[in-house]
Amino acid sequence: TDAGKSTAKWVLVTGGAGYIGSHAVAELIESGYRCVVVDNFCNSCYEPIARLQVLTNTKIPFFKVDLMDGPALEKVFQQYNIDSVIHFAGLKAVGESTKVPLTYYHNNITGTVVLLQTMKKYGTTKLVFSSSATVYGDATRFPNMIPIPENCPTGPTNPYGKTKLLIEEILEDLHTSEPEKWRFAVLRYFNPIGAHPSGLIGEDPLGIPNNLLPYMAQVAVKRRDKLFVFGNDYDSRDGTPIRDYIHVVDLAKGHIAALKYLNVADNESGLCRAWNLGSGTGSTVLEVYKAFCKASNIVLPYDIVGRRAGDVLNLTAKPDRATEELKWKTHFKVADACSDLWKWATGNPYGYQVLGVADAFFN
Ligand code: NAD
Ligand code: WQD
């Protein structure tokens, strides 16, 4: 089955049509990696892949595959010499996960287990995993642990966050079973925002956006009337919650740094280690609101409403481990991310929807 398989090394990007995955593919190709992408389009479409090919002037092999479909995934491993995997594919909406927990456990856990089984079968041992700051739960319960270091006790408070923690534990168990073999980099993202500075790729949520920046962008392009700020009675400088917002391009570059780390350790033993990817600086909702108003030159209407269930006061990263070990840090500020988001939103007010000619072929 491997006849004709080239010896060139490929990085398999799962969920590469999604928001963060598509930005990572751009950075990977820019850094000289060959990428093959799989995605089932449950929260995306082909258009970003088509645009990435234009942006990078590179042919990007793409397979519409659900990770839970082992035989379909195997075909990719048969065709390409997969040296490492960056695993973005998963469902990510906190609120939805409380409504349909089984869908989240099935998709995220089973998808990852099938991926790992396939890697094992084909001898691929390196994986970078998209985890989340949500594994820390309400870190404010440990006041001396803000900003949050990686050794802060975990305690996710919703099914989505629990799938992330459980996958981290699965990776640890697999590494423990064959410690010389497996190399796992667990990246705990804080709040990714912004878009590629080209304006060609960006975040395109289906339906009503759950997250602050995409919601503001839709208000700015008049797809929504006003922003609702979920509570101003928190114990912060202006009463709104604090998050560590990170430009998606900085985040994408963190994956290159992690891959390099896994590769440099090549002749030594395996590893399974977590790194926070954040800026180390917290911003309140109203600070981000002001930054986006400035970038777009629009005074967005907003109402203060009640707190959103499950929200916590402060999630700010202590990113020192990534700085020291991965030699990675953020370069962009919230203001840069707001400008890039505005470029994306003005060029693509309805996201990828207006084009999508290629989707007819894949769907
Ligand atoms: P996204 O929804 O834009 O991208 C995920 C992609 O995975 C989508 O294109 C989706 O179609 C695909 N996918 C989902 N299940 C799949 C399956 N079973 N088989 C194949 N493809 C599948 O989300 P994103 O914001 O790019 O997030 C990427 C990863 O990072 C996710 O694992 C998410 O949980 C994690 N993460 C995201 C954030 C955030 O705020 N965006 C923060 C922390 C962690
Ligand atoms: C940010 C702030 C809201 C929308 C989520 C996930 C987390 C991770 C990142 C995946 C909060 C406020 C928001 C709105 C608002 N994802 N807000 N009005 O909740 O910090 O993190 O995305 O792993 O797991 O929980 O991000 O963008 O939803 O909210 O006032 O319409 O903006 O209350 O303070 P969050 P967010």
Care to describe what's here?
There is one protein chain. The chain has 363 residues and is α/β, with parallel strands linked by helices. 39% of the residues lie in helices and 17% in strands. It has twelve helices and 14 strands. The chain has helices at residues 19-30, 47-56, 70-79, 94-99, 101-122, 159-177, 212-220, 248-264, 285-296, 320-326, 334-347, 359-362, and strands at 10-14, 35-39, 62-64, 82-87, 126-132, 183-189, 191-193, 227-230, 242-243, 245-247, 271-277, 283-284, 302-305, 314-315. The strands form four sheets. It has a seven-stranded parallel sheet, sandwiched between helices. Strands 12-9-14 form a three-stranded mixed sheet. A two-stranded parallel sheet has the order 7-10. Strand 5 (126-132), helix 6 (159-177) and strand 6 form a beta-alpha-beta unit. Helix 7 packs parallel to helix 9. The longest helix has 22 residues, at 101-122. It is globular and about 55 Å long. The two termini are 27 Å apart.
Secondary-structure topology with pairs:
Layout: E1 10-14, H1 19-30, E2 35-39, H2 47-56, E3 62-64, H3 70-79, E4 82-87, H4 94-99, H5 101-122, E5 126-132, H6 159-177, E6 183-189, E7 191-193, H7 212-220, E8 227-230, E9 242-243, E10 245-247, H8 248-264, E11 271-277, E12 283-284, H9 285-296, E13 302-305, E14 314-315, H10 320-326, H11 334-347, H12 359-362
Parallel strand pairs: 1-2, 1-4, 2-3, 4-5, 5-6, 6-11, 7-10, 8-13, 9-14
Antiparallel strand pairs: 9-12
The protein binds nicotinamide-adenine-dinucleotide (NAD) and UDP-4-deoxy-4-formamido-beta-L-arabinopyranose (WQD).
The site of nicotinamide-adenine-dinucleotide has 26 residues, from helix 1, helix 5 and strand 5.
